[in-house]
Automatic annotation (TrEMBL):
Keyword set includes Metal-binding: yes
Binding residues annotated for DNA, in chain numbering: H100, R119
Gene from which the chain derives: mutM
Cofactor(s) the record lists: Zn(2+)
Species in which this protein is naturally found: Thermanaerothrix solaris
Gene Ontology MF annotations: class I DNA-(apurinic or apyrimidinic site) endonuclease activity; oxidized purine nucleobase lesion DNA N-glycosylase activity
Entry keywords, A to Z: DNA damage, DNA repair, DNA-binding, Glycosidase, Hydrolase, Lyase, Metal-binding, Multifunctional enzyme, Zinc, Zinc-finger
Described function: Involved in base excision repair of DNA damaged by oxidation or by mutagenic agents. Acts as DNA glycosylase that recognizes and removes damaged bases. Has a preference for oxidized purines, such as 7,8-dihydro-8-oxoguanine (8-oxoG). Has AP (apurinic/apyrimidinic) lyase activity and introduces nicks in the DNA strand. Cleaves the DNA backbone by beta-delta elimination to generate a single-strand break at the site of the removed base with both 3'- and 5'-phosphates.
Entries under HAMAP family matching the protein: Fapy_DNA_glycosyl (MF_00103)
Residues in Formamidopyrimidine-DNA glycosylase catalytic domain copies: 2-122
Active site, renumbered: P2 (schiff-base intermediate with dna), E3 (proton donor), K65 (proton donor), R263 (proton donor)
Domain FPG-type: 239-273
Name of this chain's protein: Formamidopyrimidine-DNA glycosylase
Amino acid sequence: MPELPEVETIARWLREGRATEPPLLGRTITAVEVHWPRTLAAPDPATFAQRLTGQHVTAIGRRGKFLRWVLSGGGVVLLHLRMSGDLRWQPPPAASPQPHDRLVFAFADGWRLAFNDPRKFGRVWLVEDETSVLGDLGPEPLDPDLSAADFYARLQASRARLKPLLLDQRFLAGLGNIYADEALFQAGLHPLRPAHTLSRTEAERLLHAIRQVLRAGIAHHGASIDWVYRGGDFQNHFAVYRRAGQPCLRCGTPIQRQLVGQRSTHFCPHCQV
């Protein structure tokens, strides 16, 4: 599943375009094709297509793992890619839908943007009030308004173990398996450590590590570790994730893999306490 750096990268590509693809920003939607109705969480397909047709995208951003498109006539499109969702530009001439295209946005010059999702877990919303979908999300880890003192207080209020807590989108928005593992390694903290046992210094170190690995992930356009997300190379800079059995880059101890809350967790048993 794409995490904060991958979703941020996609948002930037949609705003700015890239070598072979146009920007989405400013384009007017001329038609919407819904090929898998359950992709739409709200509203129904007919209403969704009717309301988007003729509108142009005035802003593109991200909240947690959600993509946000602000529309000229009101409303916001929210997209969550989940396990296998992807946005793919299709150049003119217009072709038939590709396998696994669940939703297609068409534009006047013949370009089409497809929401492709083999596993069908991704969801799209058209809402007037974003809090109806995003209201339970925690703070953005890169938000400068999130201070070390605030972060420490949030840790102190929880009896959860660090790894599951960092994956809880109500605690922090945008972190997933990859960057949680990498941040805990950078901070020297064991993934099973109870959150409330961290000192102020450890909490500050963890927040710094989270921001460090997220910024590195964004700088490398995210991590491309399977067929779902392409275009990043942060996978070439992992310290622990998917390195089970390989020597720790700091001490040489073999990296361990353990299931924590049904999620693969990678850590150095010597460096992380």
